[in-house]
Amino acid sequence: MSALRLLVGTRKGAFILTSDGKRAEWKVSGPHFAGWEIYHLKGSPVNPNRIYASQSSGWFGQQVQRSDDGGETWEAVGKDFLYDGVPGTHQWYDGTQHPWEFKRIWHFEPSLTEAETVYAGAEDAALFRSTDGGTTWHELSGLRDAKGKLWQPGAGGMCLHTIVLDPTNAQRMFVAISAAGAFRTDDGGTTWSPINQGLKSQFELPDPTAEVGHCVHRIAMHSSRPGVLFMQKHWDVMRSDNAGDSWNEVSGNLPSDFGFPIDVHAHEPETIYVVPIKSDSEHFPPDGKLRVYRSRSGGNEWEALTKGLPQSDCYVNVLRDAMAVDSLDKCGVYFGTTGGQVYGSADAGDTWNAIVRDLPAVLSVEAQTLP
Amino acid sequence: MIRVVLPVHLRTLAKVDDEVKLEVAQPVTQRTVLDALEATYPVLRGTVRDQTTQRRRPLVRFFCCGEDFSHELPDAALPDAIATGSEPFFIIGAMAGG
Fold it and tell me: The complex's ipTM?
């Protein structure tokens, strides 16, 4: 029988939740790296026991931890994230230019095919690649040539938080940056283009043709259709059917189109999930009801999924990296909250249970389906 | 031997349970203590001082014999009690709220 492993990053450590394929009983391991912020953990699709963890602290800086036994033991590996050449400058809050400064790693994305290759998304926004299992890192600096001087941090920092690899084309990948937008490479990361046509940010970015400056919160793709992308933006849920060349809004009947995560069902490429949040100034669910919304039509038509989720007095947030799906049948869906709950559904969102309730604020959730 | 007390985050990272003892070349200064610390525990490189500038990280403090030495010059001699090992050199995470 298959097994499940959830990798949960929190404000005060990492937790590993494991279950068999029934997904009814869970074992909790942790905290790993107690007291440290764990922005993200992710396992290699090539070798699922190879897991990377981003360990950081406002006091003591960035560490990268690697496990080769599914999170039982860890080894600190390379943490030298040096911007390529002269780092240069980007737009600052007051309109002046400000030097690029490394702060932390938000997201790891291990290669789909190469066991020792992994990508890392940084704040201040940059993409790094390691081809030796995280021992050394090299910036793919062509990304910052995509109008990097015009990028400006949002309230959460200028972070590269999303990395999506095309499973059919090793030369193509997508990244998203707050508050710069989405970008695509078609040559393995050497050169990049903004892919933000169709995104609208009425007040923050009145120019409808602006190539960068959009606050993209998350991008998701189904592996069977790499040309179709779904996006949760600062406001608006968006869809692209041409690999990001253009976007259309698919917010439809959502109670709010503000939110952070978005994900795609493992077996149904038109089934997508979001968690609406009231507004950019009120980071909690509308009406105090924690509802996942599911669309089975690739957007526009949404249904609220509420069974097992709190439907009164709930004022948590769900952050951009804190939702994941497994690949079992039926598809499992998981998300973590800033209140420390990790909820799971073993039936594609129809019903939910709290796997754990009292962790530190959850920053990220990843699901590994194990043989 | 020089005794160094690490904050709990760095003890966890270095996989040590208690204060650490270091052979430090004379003169005993912040710089020579930290050089010895990083040589013995390479994982701590960059956690106490910036790897490039070698300056103390903003939210790290140094205490010796009950006094704050954070703003002393890195090459200034530390008190004899530190140099002889009768008192430990404290590395502390600054109070920062949250």
Answer: 0.92
